[in-house]
Structure prediction request, 473 residues.
Amino acid sequence: MKSRLVVVGLSVLFVAALAGAAWARNPHNAGGIQYVVQGLNDKNKGNNEDYLREMYKAVDQLSLGATEDPADYEAQGYLGWAYAEIDSAGPAGEWFARALAAAQAKGDKKKIDAIQANRDHYWSIAFNDGIKNIQDAQQFLDAGAKEDAARTFAVAITKLTRARQLRPGHPQTIRNLATAYALTGDNDGAETVLRTGLTEAAADTSAHILAEALRTVRTNKAGALVDAKKYNEAIAAYVELTQQDAGSHDLWMGLGNSYYSRAGDKTDPARTEAARKADYKLAADAYSKAFQLKTTDMNVAFNAALSYQNAGEVGLAEAQWRTVLKASPDDPEALSSLGSVLADEKKYDEAQAALQRAVEIKPEEKVFFRQLAAIYSKQNNSPKMTEMMFVYLPMANGQLQPDAGAAAKAGAKPGTAAANTLASVGAPDKVYNWTDNAAGALQTWMYSAKRLAFTFGSSGALAQKSDWNAKKK
Prediction:
């Protein structure tokens, strides 16, 4: 039921220089710009010591200039540039954003393009590094190297956090940062990123991808609560999610799973049988809603039928089992369950027909014969009940012989009913040796294709013939 967020990669952008010469401007801004230019030149020459010293001076000077001349957005773009060079992503993103906003307000396209190019250069390096780390971490997971994966996911989170700081409000960056958290199992962290991201990116036309990702994360969180057996919290989460998105098949299925799991939880002795049945009913209703939204999902239709049956809602269960069988008429488990429901409704002929069909399809399933016996018992038909129990009991308690033909031949003493049966009916396909408290040692011969079974005593005398072809007598 869990889904992964989509990872998106973007190509690297390259640094575009801002205006090379400074006009008559605040001296701190002018000096700071010169420090940026000098620092980049020293960096290109490999002179890292001077480069770093100059970049820190640039930050000092341009910070003073921004206070003294807040209208100089070109200098603010340089300040963002300088912060980015000293790996201070938060302030860099803030000053790039201020510079861009001012340039856009002025309609200064040349400056806009230059500031964006510089910001996106640093952003794209961090973004693409983060994406690469996610991919590497997933490869580690596939190889079973969990510790390496954890370390690499942590690096991805660091890189994508830096990318987000450099380019606040960028939906793809926010979504992929949430992906990194989610893939580590930290759904709370992913949810926090997406919720704050929705506020940051509210004006972006792509912000809807964050809302979609948030639903995915919250669904994963709810599923994790079910796995952790925190059923009350899971139910509350799924109820809220279905209220927000009533058209989601997966959410209704998750809600059904939550109610079904709580209904079957035996750890709380205070929960009454009535409360469990109520949960099964709620589970069934949720599964039914999921099936209405996706009528090709027969698994959820099966779950709905089973839940109604467990809730004691026999009428609803019958209708749902018939829906399942309409799509899968030879599903033996569905036939068996329908038979049980019909028997509860005292529709014995239909119940018997359903169970006999289940036995024809899956004759090795001993429970079906016990169900048939129960149906005959409810009709006070002791002979047919006994016939079916003499099929169920050897399958349940007996020892299947490895060579049916040899076992039958060994038990068919001349002149006995066993010998006559072997001569007239042929070798059985299965032979069980078992013991009955009253009759002693017995041997049952199964003829699945003929829908017959014969049980003989140790002397070869016929103890019981079982026929599940015949209708009740």
Observations:
- The CA atoms of residues 104 and 193 lie 28 Å apart.
- The chain is about 70% helix and 5% strand.
- The beta strands are 399-400, 430-436, 440-447, 452-457, 462-467.
- The two ends are 49 Å apart (CA to CA).
